[in-house]
Amino acid sequence: MADFQARTPARSLFWRAARFLYLLWGGMILIRLAPMGQMRFPAWIWDWPRFASKLTGPVGKGLLFGLGLAMALAALKEIWELVDLVLLKLLRDGER
User: Fold this and answer.
1) Which sign does the torsion angle of CA 73, 77, 80, 85 carry?
2) Which has the closest alpha carbon to 82: 26, 7, 25, 5?
3) What distance in Å separates the CA atoms of residue 94 and residue 57, rounded to the nearest whole number?
4) Which of 39, 42, 60, 66 could pair with 55 as two cysteines, CB 3.0-4.6 Å apart?
């Protein structure tokens, strides 16, 4: 992974930024909608009524909320690493 970052720093920063935005967006959507029960599920889930009732019940809402919280924390970790990479790049360029 380090060799890939050394060869293409701009591409690596782009993919990390895209992953950060995806994790943040998904986490915020799940955290906001799961506790209120406003999640929209695809039609194929309703073919299995027991599975659909588990997802829309309190346990399913809690699991979706937990997934959203994990995504938001992963976004926080991702932005931390992204800022770290940018600052290291700037400090290395400043030493030259």
Assistant:
1) negative
2) 5
3) 55
4) 60
The answer to whether the beta carbons of residues 43 and 52 sit under 8 Å apart is no
Q: Report in angstroms the alpha-carbon separations of 27 from 6, 8, 61, 68, 91.
A: 30, 28, 14, 4, 32
Residue-range domain boundaries for the chain? 2-95
Q: Determine contact, residues 23/75, Cβ cutoff 8 Å.
A: yes
95: tokens are: 């030493």
pTM across the whole model: 0.73
* Nearest partner of 58 among 72, 37, 44, judged by Cα: 37
pLDDT in tens, 23-68: 999 999 988 988 887 888 888 888 988 888 888 888 888 998 999 9
